[in-house]
Design a protein that fits this description.
Helix content: 10-25%
Number of domains: 1
Region (Disordered): 1-21
Protein name: DUF397 domain-containing protein
Pfam family, one: DUF397
Largest sheet: 4 strands, antiparallel
Domain DUF397: 6-60
Number of strands: 4
Distance between the termini: 32 Å
Number of helices: 1
Structural class: alpha+beta
Organism: Plantactinospora endophytica
Length: 62
């Protein structure tokens, strides 16, 4: 997957003390990318935008 041009941002739910941090890139067409801030080379998850919206919607309710 070509991630060139991905603009990463830290999740608003990430802690500020260097703990659990997640970065999201949602500017590429047809995909939302997620990675661990502490291990940026450790792998990237890719979601279809509809699946990502459903996940975020469920997470906000809990």
């Amino acid at each position: 997957m070509d991630m060139t041009g991905a603009r990463w941002r830290k999740s608003t739910r990430s802690s500020t003390n260097g703990g659990s941090c997640v970065e999201v890139a949602d500017n590429l067409p047809g995909v939302v990318l997620v990675r661990d801030t502490k291990d940026r080379d450790g792998g990237t998850l890719a979601f279809e935008p509809a699946a990502w919206r459903a996940f975020v919607g469920l997470a906000k309710r809990h």
